[in-house]
């Protein structure tokens, strides 16, 4: 995933509400029983919440779509 293992671990443990640790090979060991679908959903949420690379333009909440696309055009061309 190209992310810091400690940050991913902290997020997962907080979302699961349990304890755990990383072993010697950077694998997560979690206390409790959880279905794989639970981990998949939480990891998908993590990836969407914390992107690995920032977008080329900052998010502009005050700009409408036309203004945003004009900025994209100026930025890339």
Morphology = globular
Distance, first to last CA: 31 Å
Q: Give the strand line-up of the largest sheet.
A: 1-2
H/E element order: HEEHH
Q: State mean pLDDT (0 to 100 scale).
A: 78
- Tell me the CATH architecture: 2-Layer Sandwich
What level of helicity do the residues show?
A: 40-55%
Count of distinct strands: 2
CATH-defined fold name = Alpha-Beta Plaits
Number of domains: 1
The biggest sheet, with number of strands, parallel, antiparallel or mixed sense and barrel status, is: 2 strands, antiparallel
Radius of gyration: 18 Å
Helix/strand-derived class? Answer: mainly alpha
Task: Describe the protein's architecture and organization.
The protein is mostly helical and 77 residues long. The protein has one domain: Alpha-Beta Plaits (2-Layer Sandwich). Helices cover 49% and strands 8% of the residues. It contains three helices and two strands. A two-stranded antiparallel sheet has the order 1-2. β1 and β2 form a beta hairpin. α1 crosses α2. The longest helix has 14 residues. The two termini are 31 Å apart.
Summarize this entry quickly.
Helix content is 49%, strand content 8%. It is mainly alpha-helical.
Characteristic terms for this protein:
globular, 77 residues, 3 helices, two-stranded antiparallel sheet, Alpha-Beta Plaits, mainly alpha
